[in-house]
């Protein structure tokens, strides 16, 4: 019997699916996979429903509906002062996952080097490899997930085609500061490289921080491909509506990949996202403020039962060091034990590494109702404190 693609066959099922299945099996509270447990903004949902019933439900343009592309360009002008030409510089995709895949397949030639920061989202590396790219890693180390000039010197080379950066960073909940972004942009420019910027958590940043698109730094406007996700911005992760913004000469090859991947994205969802991107400032600040309060609630709870909680500057996530528990096993074993014994699911952070993985850090998702977070902490307390 002939077998499937060797590279893809070498990967197991993603950790998110694995932990969500285990969570269901054990009747656990799922603080593993990152998704909110509320219904999302009612007006955005209503716009999608109306568009489904009364709008056009045939193929929209492969680049996305003009309405959504215009809304996106206006949104990035409003929030970041970016001047984007919607006709030549925006494209709608079926989720950020597709946007990432289209960027990597559209830009990488076999043998090109790709700089990846670990921890990294699980879809990056398989796609870089499928495209024939050669990964070069920069490993960020907990607790502050920082990196140095020397780390970049070691990873970049004359063969570097692009760097893939995720800011805010899942699972580390790090938001890159301006100095770090400037350092990355210096290397990108010195090596005449590109940057694929996975900025899906752009609106989920806390404590008065503001997200800085790498594209907004001097010299980077025409080197960056900025990726966003309506799933995160509107707490509707199942919708899978993403977008890529980039200079025409970068967007064109990416559109070539997109046309053979999904070609287009449901028009009613595009209508609703176009509406949503135009919402008033208060919606976006309220989203971040609400999540910040949940971060604080879960972080305090985790600390009270003995976890060493790491700072979380953005995303849906907080990471925690488990060394203090003296658990006999790594983070993967700890998460499997936790879901079965405490009935709380988390994600082992080593799943986001391919080398030099820490084995003492786990990730919890806090984008859940307060009572769900409280019940999770009660369960952990019963296991760690009362036993
Ligand atoms: N990148 C990162 C860092 C993510 O956490 C996610 C969340 N799934 C994605 C990309 C994919 O987003 P989407 O659901 O829009 O495909
Ligand atoms: N981005 C989500 C997370 O990190 C999961 C998405 C997925 O399940 N593929 O939890």
TrEMBL record:
Q: Where is the Aminotransferase class I/classII large domain?
A: 29-380
**Cellular component GO terms, alphabetically?**
cytoplasm
Instruction: Determine if Transferase is one of this entry's keywords.
Output: yes
- The name of this protein is Aminotransferase
Please name the source species. Azospirillum lipoferum
User: Keyword set for this entry?
Assistant: Aminotransferase, Pyridoxal phosphate, Transferase
Q: Which NCBIfam families match?
A: PRK08912.1 (NF006488)
Gene Ontology molecular function terms on file:
kynurenine-oxoglutarate transaminase activity; pyridoxal phosphate binding
Q: Which InterPro entries match?
A: Aminotransferase_I/II_large, Kynurenine-oxoglutarate_AT, PyrdxlP-dep_Trfase, PyrdxlP-dep_Trfase_major, PyrdxlP-dep_Trfase_small
Cofactor(s) required for function per UniProt: pyridoxal 5'-phosphate
What is stated as this protein's family in its record? Belongs to the class-I pyridoxal-phosphate-dependent aminotransferase family.
